[in-house]
Automatic annotation (TrEMBL):
<dbReference type="Pfam" id="PF00106">
    <property type="entry name" value="adh_short"/>
</dbReference>
<keyword id="KW-0812">Transmembrane</keyword>
<keyword id="KW-0443">Lipid metabolism</keyword>
<keyword id="KW-0472">Membrane</keyword>
<dbReference type="InterPro" id="IPR036291">
    <property type="entry name" value="NAD(P)-bd_dom_sf"/>
</dbReference>
<keyword id="KW-1133">Transmembrane helix</keyword>
<dbReference type="GO" id="GO:0016020">
    <property type="term" value="C:membrane"/>
</dbReference>
<comment type="function">
    <text>Catalyzes the reduction of all-trans-retinal to all-trans-retinol in the presence of NADPH.</text>
</comment>
<keyword id="KW-0560">Oxidoreductase</keyword>
<dbReference type="InterPro" id="IPR002347">
    <property type="entry name" value="SDR_fam"/>
</dbReference>
<keyword id="KW-0521">NADP</keyword>
<comment type="similarity">
    <text>Belongs to the short-chain dehydrogenases/reductases (SDR) family.</text>
</comment>
<dbReference type="GO" id="GO:0005811">
    <property type="term" value="C:lipid droplet"/>
</dbReference>
<protein>
    <recommendedName>
        <fullName>Short-chain dehydrogenase/reductase 3</fullName>
    </recommendedName>
</protein>
<feature type="transmembrane region" description="Helical">
    <location>
        <begin position="20"/>
        <end position="47"/>
    </location>
</feature>
<dbReference type="GO" id="GO:0052650">
    <property type="term" value="F:all-trans-retinol dehydrogenase (NADP+) activity"/>
</dbReference>
């Protein structure tokens, strides 16, 4: 009996050792695979810095742009139409929106205007359903509308903060809830969200705005991971945009010590960069491009150094109404 027991115990021990060895071998193989993949993907990334992915065509696509009445949204709508897309313009300001639609029609493009308050969930649902019935399913969703009250944190009334989050953040959820199921059913679609450099770092006088743009980044990051783990949707693309200052009047009092290093971009150029990046299926677009890397590098440095760099660059926004 004892011999039998001893034999069984040593067999179990042996099995346990083999199991552990197998698990370590598996981890080792995965690690080698990770190292080889990382090196290969680094090479591909370097190659892509000089030989970009070909731009996809948007001709015949239906593009929906929120906040199409002014600034970046207006330019996006006009330039998309010039590339042959049919554009659905949504804005809370009917006059501005109509002007964008007229500008597109004046160039023989296809555009429709919908008055929509993107911060209002019921209104978004109603307007998006109307668009589906009257025009059809969209291919490109530009979540662009945004506001930016600019003052010290304690001067923001609570209603203003709630409204800011409704316009800058919740609106993305409401449009996505309407269109993502359509994209998933069809297997294709592209969502482009406007965050900001303020979504990568903090800026004084913009505390709620910074929080809202960090939230947009978080939303897109989460969605990216969820779609990545579901291999049914390789052709649903996401793009998150991080502009610095674009000359639209949103940031009325930008202050910068080195304007040539951190230049103000025109809305025309910003839209051009966004559309080009979107057509290359880039996940992240920063305007100007170097800003993203600069912020990323500075963010890993000790806090005191981050402050010193920030003080040196003096890139801030002064309080304005
Ligand atoms: N301009 C910049 O310097 C800058 C920098 C970084 C990020 N961004 C982001 O880019 C986006 C566009 O900014 P912009 O400078 O073109 O702004 P803008 O003020 O020029 O235009 C915004 C448009 O959104 C519309 N809008 C506002 N609230 C709305 C609502 N509730 N429903 C529907 N439409 C609404 C406005 O009527 C306007 O037509 C925003 O999300 C903004 O946060 C801008």
């Amino acid at each position: 009996y004892h011999v039998l027991l001893n034999n069984s115990l040593s067999s179990i021990k042996m099995l346990a050792i083999l199991m552990i060895a197998y698990q370590w071998a598996l981890i080792f193989c995965d690690l080698i695979h990770l190292i080889v993949m990382t090196n290969w993907l680094m090479l591909v990334s370097f190659y892509r810095m000089y030989f970009s992915v070909e731009m996809k065509s948007v001709a015949g696509n239906i593009a929906l742009v929120t906040g199409a009445g002014h600034g970046i949204g207006k330019e996006l709508a006009i330039q998309l139409s010039r590339l042959g897309a049919k554009v659905v313009c949504c804005d809370i300001n009917k006059d501005w929106n109509d002007r964008t639609v007229d500008a597109i029609k004046g160039e023989a493009g296809h555009a429709w205007g919908y008055h929509c308050d993107v911060s209002n969930r019921d209104n978004v649902k109603e307007v998006m359903q109307m668009i589906r019935q009257e025009i059809g399913d969209i291919d490109l969703l530009f979540n662009n509308a945004g506001i930016m009250p600019c003052k010290p944190f304690l001067k923001h009334p609570p209603r203003e903060i709630e409204n800011l989050f409704a316009v800058n953040v919740l609106s993305h959820f409401w449009t996505l809830q309407e269109w993502l199921p359509v994209f998933m059913e069809r297997g294709t679609g592209h969502v482009i969200a406007l965050s900001s450099v303020a979504g990568l770092m903090g800026t004084s006088n913009l505390v709620p705005y910074c929080a809202s743009k960090h939230a947009v980044r978080g939303l897109m990051e989460g969605l990216k991971e969820e779609l990545r783990y579901d291999d049914r949707f390789p052709d649903i693309k996401l793009t998150c945009v991080y502009p610095f200052v674009v000359d639209t009047g949103l940031a009325r009092k930008p202050r910068m010590r080195f304007p040539s290093f951190t230049p103000i971009t025109s809305p025309e150029r910003a839209a051009e960069i966004i559309i080009e990046g979107m057509r290359r299926n880039q996940y992240m677009i920063s305007i100007p491009t170097k800003d993203f890397y600069l912020v990323k590098i500075v963010n890993i440095l000790p806090l005191a150094i981050q402050h010193a760099v920030s003080d040196f660059l003096e890139a801030e926004v002064d309080e304005h109404e």
